[in-house]
Design brief:
Chain B: Pfam families: TAF10. The complex is a heterodimer. By secondary structure, chain A is mainly alpha-helical. Helices cover 51% and strands 3% of the residues of chain A. In chain A, strands 2-3 form a two-stranded antiparallel sheet. Chain A is rod-shaped and about 140 Å long. By secondary structure, chain B is mainly alpha-helical. Chain B has a domain of 79 residues: Histone, subunit A, CATH 1.10.20. Classes of the chains: A mainly alpha, B mainly alpha.
Chain lengths: 292, 139
């Protein structure tokens, strides 16, 4: 309501500007009537009265117009309104033609604050047909449109195959270079050592030994099947089998290696009771029964 | 053209197709005419009232009144102006009456400076049925 300090929103300023204009109008009317000065309270009273008078004419004329099932007020509605408010309509033309007339300039039109161009992002959505034009616009689209931040991965077969192949090649290359850098290397060229390093081959004294001997896992598996069956026959059988396939020279090594393997296998069995990793379990071969 | 009735009713006068009762006292007679101010509305196009159209339109819009014709707005602003100036004239009469009521000398007319005070405005408004009561300020 005017008369009290307001926060200063655009709507309030709008209202206050028009209120001030009314005050100026009232003052000019008083001057026309012959007053030189007036009390502030008197001017405020008259301003309030003229504002409520205009509002009441508008409200009442609208009511009369709607009473006859219309929406656009006409002259007749206003005449009836004025008559109802005790206004003598006949005297209005005479008053209009009075001599001293003063014109007050309209209050300045302030535009609504517009967001600067730099801050707007994207095209605002236009109003649907059921929304009147004087309503404010939609906000920027980024406030209500959600776009996912990831891109759909490529699922083309050819691209995927190429990717898999290049990845595998890179992994192999990286691994070999790593082994070459950390282990011993041999080079093809005499003078240039670092260009093409080859992983050095470790020569075994008995190269075919690893091919002939059973692997650690196979030894464990043999132990397992033997212990489960509690069959000494297979145990004594397998040992001379291995002994016979070896050459005469490294027989000693063989037995010692075998013994080491069995001891290791025994310890391994104990460990295996604690860590039961299915991928580390020995391969289970079918039991071969041999009749003797 | 206004239709005229063929047969006059037995009692009372007919004027412009509207029944006009015989005036009981001579001074007040109902006036029957077409919609008043229609001609005046045409003249309003050249004339600009003191209240700007924007201000009147603003207050009318707040009340829900959407004017199709700008002359309607001028008519309303004129009516409001006349309302206030009538009150102002009445207050001026009160002021003049108070000034010369005590019988001051006729040689010099009452000084031209009239100041509108609440003491003059209150009785003027009371004639219109508006009762204002401003509180006395304690200083």
């Amino acid at each position: 309501r005017p008369g009290s300090k307001q926060a200063g929103t655009p709507a309030d300023n709008y209202h206050l500007a028009r209120r001030r204009t009314l005050q100026v109008v009232v003052s000019s009317l008083l001057t026309e009537a012959g007053f030189e000065s007036a009390e502030k309270a008197a001017v405020e009273t008259l301003t309030e009265m003229i504002q409520s008078y205009i509002s009441e004419i508008g409200r009442s004329a609208k009511s009369y117009c709607e009473h006859t099932a219309r929406t656009q007020p006409t002259l007749s509605d206003i005449v009836v309104t004025l008559v109802e408010m005790g206004f003598n309509v006949e005297t209005l033309p005479a008053y209009a033609k009075r001599s001293q007339r003063m014109v007050i300039t309209a209050p300045p039109v302030t535009n609504q604050p517009v967001t600067p161009k730099a801050l707007t992002a994207g095209q605002n959505k236009p109003h649907p047909s059921h929304i009147p034009g004087h309503f404010p616009e939609f906000p920027d689209p980024h406030t209500y449109i959600k776009t996912p931040t990831y891109r759909e991965p490529v699922s083309d077969y050819q691209v995927l195959r190429e990717k898999a192949a290049s990845q595998r090649r890179d992994v192999e290359r990286a691994l070999t270079r790593f082994m070459a850098k950390t282990g011993e290397t041999q080079s093809l060229f005499k003078d240039d050592v670092s260009t093409f390093p080859l992983i050095a081959a470790r020569p075994f004294t008995v190269p075919y030994l690893t091919a002939l001997l059973p692997s650690e896992l196979e030894m464990q598996q043999m132990e397992e099947t033997d212990s489960s069956e509690q069959d000494d026959q297979t145990d004594t059988e397998n040992l001379p089998l291995h002994m016979s396939t070896d050459d005469s020279g490294p027989e000693k090594e063989n037995t010692s290696v075998l013994q080491q393997n069995t001891s290791l296998a025994g310890s391994r069995n104990g460990e295996e009771n604690v860590i039961d990793n299915p991928y580390l379990r020995p391969v289970k071969k079918p039991k071969i029964r041999r009749k003797k | 053209a206004v239709p005229v009735s063929a047969a006059a009713p037995p009692d009372g006068a007919m004027s412009n197709g509207v029944y006009v009762p015989p005036a009981a006292n001579g001074d007040v007679k109902p006036v029957v005419s077409t919609t008043p101010l229609v001609d005046f509305l045409m003249q309003l196009e050249d004339y600009t009232p003191t209240i700007p159209d924007a201000v009147t339109g603003y207050y009318l819009n707040r009340a829900g009144f959407e004017a199709s014709d700008p002359r309607i707005i001028r008519l309303i602003s004129l009516a409001a102006q006349k309302f206030i100036s009538d009150i102002a004239n009445d207050a001026l009469q009160h002021c003049k009456m108070k000034g010369t009521a005590s019988g001051s000398s006729r040689s010099k007319s009452k000084d031209k400076k009239y100041t509108l005070t609440m003491e003059d405005l209150t009785p003027a408004l009371a004639e219109y049925g508006i009762n204002v009561k401003k509180p006395h300020y304690f200083t």
